Amino acid sequence: MSHHPPNPPVIHSFASPEVLTSSLASFVVKAQKEAIDKKGRFTIALSGGSLPKQLSGLIGNHAVKWDMWQVFYADERVVPLDHPDSNHNLCTAELFSKVPIPTANIRTIDPTLLSDIEELSDAYEQELIREFAQKDAARFPVFDLILLGVGPDGHTASLFPGHELLAEEDRWVAYIEDSPKPPPKRITLTYPVINHASRVVFVAVGEGKAEILSEVLDSPEKGLPASRVKPVHPGQLFWFVDEKAAAKLRVPSQDFKL
Ligand SMILES: O=C(O)[C@H](O)[C@@H](O)[C@H](O)[C@H](O)COP(=O)(O)O
């Protein structure tokens, strides 16, 4: 692990959700290009909630090399893949059904394991191990990009305030059966995985996010789940927010330049 302290988050505040969406698409395309130039593939993890909709700027974008993407879920609800609660179902409806991505490049939970959450979670971890590396104590996967949302309680992925999973240091994927946000059964990437990514981006839009954004970013010492996302050097954390979500922030934002 790096001994360099994590870089402070870079906050980009946009005049409207539309400008955010097109800037986010440019950002993702740039991250994709850097990754493909270096190693011929692009590894990305997506969340549910409002996030998939914010990726609409990628639809019809010819710079996106969909066949080089390897997509994982930052968190997933333990339900069938075509269930209305499924993040995969949501991402498919909002994005994957509209772009030429090979199905094999979308790494879903194994729908045959829904009745055994521990096995399902371990199998998803194996899926990551197949993609990234052998798992050993010193090694965590390095995603090129992880896209996250933040809930009104400060949760992100399926890492909820006060939950024992906040302390998980070994597993790459963990499960919870008592999520305060329904549905209760979920799997999630753990902090060691999120915090070893090259880039992590939080996306938050609308006045409903203003209060929690200020708590997460202006008072990180409170240790809310979203405040614990601090990628190790040289990883970098970004926030893509609109003016309404940024309304109560005291920390400064920076202009978006590619
Ligand atoms: O599976 C989930 O529930 C999501 O991945 C979750 O972590 C989401 O990103 C936040 O709850 C924010 O949700 P909104 O974007 O809908 O506010």
What do you see in this structure?
The chain has 258 residues and is of the alpha/beta class. It has one domain: Rossmann fold, CATH 3.40.50. 26% of the residues lie in helices and 17% in strands. It is built from 7 helices and 9 strands; from the N terminus they run βαβαββααβββαβαβα. The protein has a 6-stranded parallel sheet. The protein has a 3-stranded antiparallel sheet with strand order 4-7-6. Strand 8, helix 6 and strand 9 form a beta-alpha-beta unit. The radius of gyration is 17 Å and the shape is globular. The model has no long low-confidence stretch (mean pLDDT 96). It binds 6-phosphogluconic acid (6PG). The site of 6-phosphogluconic acid has 13 residues, from loops.
List the helices and strands and how they pair.
Elements: E1 10-14, H1 17-39, E2 42-46, H2 51-54, E3 69-73, E4 75-77, H3 87-94, H4 117-132, E5 145-148, E6 173-176, E7 186-189, H5 191-194, E8 199-204, H6 210-218, E9 236-242, H7 243-246
Parallel strand pairs: 1-9, 2-3, 2-5, 5-8, 8-9
Antiparallel strand pairs: 4-7, 6-7
The chain binds 6-phosphogluconic acid.
6-phosphogluconic acid binds next to loops.
